[in-house]
Design goal:
The chain has helices spanning 15-21, 39-53, 68-82, 94-105, 115-128, 130-136, 152-164, 203-209, 229-243, 252-263, and strands at residues 28-33, 61-65, 90-93, 141-144, 170-175, 215-220. The protein is an alpha/beta fold. This is DNA 3'-5' helicase II.
Length: 282
């Protein structure tokens, strides 16, 4: 499946991908997307479909990602889908979006403040400032990428943003929870000074846990990145087991290593040169 460089409506999307891309403009979706399922392409095609087919104004859409590298890739792909309209889409990292709100609505905003102080102030603005509410009232759709990495104060920030958006503003959240399995899951994250964090509760759990927010879960299942049978099983069957908390137990790390060895094949892997830490479930 070659996605890059094609207009969304012309691409051979599978049924799951198309369901996400063509969902209602005001739909609120959590899209679980493992490695090789075309997550970034679908995220961009979702916005492109809304702009090209549903008359959503590009300037009224936001794309929030986790890293500047991802933002650059997204910007290039969106330009290939919607042309110069991509320049009107507000594509930025969560920290850049936060600073835009902070600097635009707080005359005392300063870059020299601590991260915690700045984010706390933005959350306050989101919850109570009417000028911020007026700005957000213009937003028609928000796409959030790499949401599994949003914990602590960043999760607080996105939670406050989603709560403040108009009820008819669509939100599409993309995540691969396996990517965060060895990362930001510690309960200590979010207990920083000045924060209003919910220790141990990542953003996805918060969004799914509040029925009034109206999120529905979609899953992208088909893997396109590799033809290796071993890698496909690692990125599907083994990944599912790693994500299943009921299967977490002592010795899981060693058992996972053994399963990687068993699934290795000459087309895609050399298990003798691999460590469990080398397997990126993205």
């Amino acid at each position: 499946m070659n996605i890059a460089g094609k207009a969304p409506q012309d691409t051979g999307w599978d049924a799951d991908q198309r369901a996400v891309i063509e969902a209602d403009t005001d739909a609120r979706l959590v899209v679980e997307a493992g490695p090789g399922t075309g997550k970034t392409a679908v995220a961009c095609a979702r916005l492109a479909h809304l702009i090209n087919e549903e008359d959503i104004e590009a300037s009224n859409t936001w794309m929030i990602s986790f890293t500047r590298t991802a933002v650059a890739e997204i910007r290039a792909r969106l330009h290939s889908y919607v042309g110069d309209a991509s320049f009107a889409i507000r594509i930025a990292t969560i920290d850049s979006h936060a600073w835009s709100i902070h600097s635009g609505h707080d005359p005392n905003a300063r870059l020299t403040g601590s991260y915690e102080e700045n984010i706390t102030r933005v959350i306050e603005l989101l919850k109570s400032d009417e000028d911020v509410a007026d700005e957000l009232a213009q937003i028609e759709h928000v796409v959030i990428d790499e949401a599994q990495d949003l914990v602590g104060q960043r999760a607080d920030l996105i939670e406050a943003l989603v709560n403040r958006l108009p009820s008819d503003c669509g939100v599409t959240v993309f995540a691969d929870e396996a990517q965060a399995i060895y990362g930001f899951s510690d309960d200590s994250i979010g207990r920083r000074k000045g924060g209003a964090s919910k220790p141990g509760m990542p953003l996805l759990d918060r969004l799914r846990g509040v029925k009034s927010l109206g999120f529905t879960t979609f899953v992208l299942k088909e893997i396109y990145r590799t033809s290796s049978p071993g890698l496909r099983k690692i990125f599907s069957e083994l990944r599912s087991d790693v994500l299943d908390k009921q299967k977490h137990r002592d010795g899981l790390h060693g058992q996972t290593a053994e399963r990687i060895r068993a699934l290795a094949d000459q087309q895609g892997l050399k298990w003798t040169q691999m460590k469990v830490a080398d397997v990126d479930f993205r």
